[in-house]
Write a structure and sequence with these properties.
Layout (H helix, E strand, L loop, with lengths): L29 H4 L12 H8 L15 H4 L6 E5 L11 H10 L3 E8 L5 E3 L16 H6 L3 E2 H8 L4 E6 L6 H11 L6 E5 L2 H10 L4 E4 L7 H6 L4 E5 L5 H8 L10 E4 L14 H9 L4 E4 L2 H19 L1
Parallel strand pairs: 1-2, 1-10, 2-5, 5-6, 6-7, 7-8, 8-9, 9-10
Antiparallel strand pairs: 2-3, 3-4
Helix pairs in contact: 11-12
Length: about 325
């Protein structure tokens, strides 16, 4: 059976994911971990709180498992997220770029998830390889021969070294659950953030996986209230769109959220920049604004700015 997912056209059939989730210990501090009260009511266990709370300098509550070293590095500071790996120095979504991001010390790696003809998950921002060929037209063997990296390969590379933000590119409602199956196989549920663009996907994934972290990649920021109600955790904004109104929507300031995490994709189109480009002064400004995570092409530069910004803030406090 062909299980390919084609945007807005395919009928997903033949996959039944029996995910038996037992949720009895809701962490009392979960609202603080996420910067506010989650009205959606879905369960938040320590793995979710530990990851999301990094953006809010929330220390792990008593009794929680100590966070991995890659998470401890960023506690209380803006998360640096390597957009398609270290894409300022290496090809997008390449092995070299992923390893370069980890070596630089990025807190997370952002990448794009698609599916091969034989239902293996691969990483590519664009659906098409050339004018006549899409990712979904080739088998895993054929994609590997062209140096495409599989999701499994990246997860093994990043495990306990860097978190992973997955931009789910196919919009079938059940596709995120299929991706989750691979994440669970490698024991990476507490190190992966699912980036979704469809409310149906958010609802379906939250229902099947109460504990995963979900980021919204919505371009229409007016959808964020519904995203949070469906079980979403983190809002993404574009740098060029940041103002008081968009921040209020992203923070869920009008509701019970009182300050949810906000991650920003850097770029100013008016300057002709590509996605993920930014200079040090703008990095500092975003950190001063309290932005919780930054998607950047050059994680090394962003980490240097963060170190300088953190040192300056400590000196002022003294």
């Amino acid at each position: 059976m062909n299980l390919r997912f084609l945007p807005r056209k395919a009928v997903y059939a033949g996959i039944t994911l029996a995910i038996a989730m037992t949720f009895t210990d809701v962490v009392p501090q979960f609202a603080g971990d996420l910067g506010g009260d989650l009205r959606s009511g879905h369960g938040v266990v320590p793995l979710l709180g530990r990851l999301v709370s990094l953006a809010h300098a929330v220390a792990p509550a008593k009794g929680r498992v100590v966070a991995s070293s890659w998470r401890q590095r960023a506690a209380g500071r803006t998360l640096i997220i390597a957009h398609r790996g270290f894409s300022a120095a290496y090809p997008d979504n390449s092995r070299e770029g992923f390893e370069g991001a980890i070596a630089a010390g990025a807190d997370l790696i952002e990448t794009d998830v698609r599916m091969s003809q034989d239902n293996i998950l691969f990483l590519s921002h664009d659906a098409d390889i050339d004018t006549f060929t899409d990712i979904g037209d080739l088998t895993a063997k054929e994609l590997a021969a062209q140096s495409f990296v599989s999701l499994g390969e990246l997860l093994k590379m990043a495990k306990d070294r860097a978190g992973v933000l997955l931009d789910i590119k196919l919009d079938d409602a059940d596709f995120p659950a299929f991706v989750l199956k691979e994440v669970k196989r490698l024991g990476m549920e507490d190190q992966v953030v699912f980036g979704l663009r469809e409310l149906a996907q958010v609802r379906r994934l939250r229902k099947s996986a109460p504990d995963v972290v979900i980021l919204g990649f919505f371009r229409d920021y007016g959808e964020y209230p519904a995203f949070f109600a469906a079980g979403g955790d983190i809002a993404r904004l574009w740098e060029e769109d940041i103002d008081a109104e968009t921040l209020a929507l992203a923070r869920d300031a009008s509701g019970a959220g009182r300050g949810r995490p906000v991650w920003v994709t850097t770029r100013l189109r008016a300057l002709g920049e590509s996605t993920g480009e930014i200079d040090p002064p703008r990095l500092r400004k975003l950190m001063e604004m309290g932005i919780d995570g930054l998607l950047v092409n050059d994680p090394e530069q962003a980490l240097e700015v963060r170190a300088e910004f953190g040192g300056r803030r400590r000196r002022k406090a003294e």
